[in-house]
Amino acid sequence: MDKQGFLNELSSQLNTVPEHDRTDMLYDFEEHFELAMESGKTEAEIAESLGNPKLIAKDLLAEYLVSQAESDQSVKSMFHAVLATISLSFFNLIFLLGPIVAIIGVYLSLSATAIVLTLSPIGLIASLLFEGPSNFLIKFFMAIIFCSLGVLMSIGMIYVGKFLYQMILKYVKFNIRIVKGRAGK
Questions:
Q1: 37: in domain
Q2: What string of pLDDT tens digits covers the 185 residues of the chain?
Q3: Which of 1, 14, 81, 101 is surrounded by the most beta carbons within 10 Å?
Q4: Residue 140 lies in a domain
Q5: How many Cα atoms within 13 Å fall on the side-chain side of residue 92?
Q6: Membrane-spanning regions, if any (predicted)?
């Protein structure tokens, strides 16, 4: 494969990346070709030493999406970064998707608990409609306690969510380094 074929294949694999970022990525490879050709290598030797453009594009796309998730901090960008990282190898399907799904599942269940506790005064109103005012004070204070716990837990879950977002990003980056063989770096 020659330089232009390599760069065209790489560019087509990176078609989801915005043009200015893709141009920056391709410039690095053009520069690599130029430097290696100055040292006497042929375009075919350089392209072979770089490897498969499809695999390189997967790596570049995963790193790009992780950097987007760091700056954007939305669920959508995190989802795209995780999916791109999973596509790097079968290893990632097991060691990346499993823990992330488990952590998100626990987070969502705790968030649902916080919402249910916050809405506990609705149970008090229903209890008054169906059972009458018996033990009203006990039910009233229990509803206030549960609602207060729910509000506090909801606030805590906001902070836990931000922390989990950062931890998942770090785990995705670590996983990319493992797949690339640079775990200790």
A1: no
A2: 788 888 888 888 888 888 888 888 888 888 888 888 888 888 888 888 888 888 888 888 888 888 888 888 888 888 888 888 887 777 677 778 888 889 999 999 999 999 999 998 998 888 888 887 888 888 889 999 999 999 999 999 999 999 999 999 998 888 888 777 654 44
A3: 81
A4: yes
A5: 21
A6: 78-97, 104-130, 136-160
**H-state helical runs in 73-135:** 75-86, 90-95, 97-118, 120-131
Could you tell me the CA-to-CA distances from 1 to 14, 49, 110 in Å, in that order?
Answer: 18, 11, 54
User: Could you tell me which of 130, 110, 106 has the C-alpha nearest to residue 118?
Assistant: 110
Nearby residues of 93 by Cβ (< 8 Å), 6 or more positions away: 86
- The long-range contacts involving 5-9, CB below 8 angstroms and separated by at least 24 positions, are 5/47, 6/33, 6/43, 6/47, 6/50, 6/53, 7/33, 9/53, 9/54
Domain membership of residue 92 as a residue range: 75-180
- The first and second tokens of residue 127, run together, are 């209890």
Considering its fold, how many domains does the chain have in total? 1
